[in-house]
Amino acid sequence: MDKSITIKDIARQAGVSPSTVSRVLNSTKPVAGDKRALVLAAVERLQYRPNAVARGLARGRSMTVGVLVQDINSPFFAQIVSGIEQGLDREGYRPMLTTTHWRTDNQEEVRSLQLLLERRADGVIVVGSHIPDEILRAVARQVPMVAVTRRVEGLEGQCLYVDNHGGAYRATRYLIGLGHTRIAHIRGTPGHPDAADRHAGYCQALAEAGMPINERLIVDAQFTERSGLAAVEELIARGERFTAIFAANDQSAYGVMLGLFNHGYRIPSDVSVVGFDDQFLSAYTLPPLTTVHHPSHEMGKAAATGLLHLIDNQEPLLPRFPAELTIRKSAMRLRQGE
């Protein structure tokens, strides 16, 4: 393809004016059907591909989308960003990325979001974050916005998330169905909404089964491998007997599995382990980890598509993702007498 092809070249090939070609390519004004057909035929013959940035400027757009992501070092969030990039790329958009961490204060996240707005992004995707709902509602009044892995009151139609409560409930019910009655829970970061929802699902499953909620079998962690390892050390040090562990995410479950191995426990014959997120590596742990599937890449693509709809003044039409259990080899039926 000759990149030097211009609007005037297409106009000469089609026998129309350059302004007619511009109206067809940028969809700025209606063009008669016969002239439109001539322009499109010329575009095809010349193999013309309009520059995305130039097209965006003609439409008053920057062709960039701001992406505020909680922690790009997390494999889970990295998969969401990968999905966003793929979804935007199909329409010639590029992400403008800024990252924070869930342990930073809200003000730092707000400053990062303000930076994206100052760079005149056509829209914003917020992945995670602790930014208060009222600030996100104010941002959504300024630019098209989609939130991923969180719910914003009043903007439910612009939010993508899985049922964290339901997923944790299913995971815990699965362990109960295997005969486990002493199920420990490695909780996520204190104050994080996902951690709260998953803890609530765990508690509901126990309560419905008529089992007491033993606080000594619940340990706070930080959604990381290191904190999962530390949490299982604390759990063992407490001296409470347990036959299964539900970890609030896969990364902390990896640390749990290492901690159990270090203490001579076999998985799943001594202790069953279940995680949450179904990260790529979870199929390759030893044994492969049973976990709640969290379709991170698909959610990223859906967020990008929904935001582009909003930019075009259309409904985002965001899908709902169920939190289903992916059963592998890290949990088994409790043997009689244990």
Summarize the structure.
By secondary structure, this protein is of the alpha/beta class. The chain is built from twelve helices and eleven strands.
**CATH A-level architecture of the largest domain:** 3-Layer(aba) Sandwich
* Share of helix, binned: 40-55%
Q: Tally the helices: what do you get?
A: 12
Which oligomerization state do the chains in this entry correspond to?
single chain
Write out the strand line-up for the largest beta sheet, numbering strands in chain order. Answer: 7-6-8-9-10-11
Q: Shape, please? A: elongated
Task: Tell me what the structure shows.
This protein is of the alpha/beta class and 338 residues long. It folds into 3 domains: 7-50, lambda repressor-like DNA-binding domains (434 Repressor (Amino-terminal Domain)), CATH 1.10.260; 64-162 and 296-311, 3-Layer(aba) Sandwich (Rossmann fold), CATH 3.40.50.2300; 164-294, Response regulator (Rossmann fold, 3-Layer(aba) Sandwich). Helices cover 44% and strands 14% of the residues. It has 12 helices and 11 strands. It has helices spanning 7-14, 18-26, 33-46, 52-58, 75-89, 106-118, 133-142, 164-177, 193-208, 225-238, 250-262, 296-311; strands at residues 64-69, 94-99, 123-127, 145-148, 159-160, 183-187, 218-220, 244-247, 272-277, 290-293, 325-326. α1 crosses α2 (18-26), α1 packs across α3 (33-46) and α8 (164-177) runs parallel beside α9 (193-208). The longest helix has 16 residues, at 193-208. The model has no long low-confidence stretch (mean pLDDT 87).
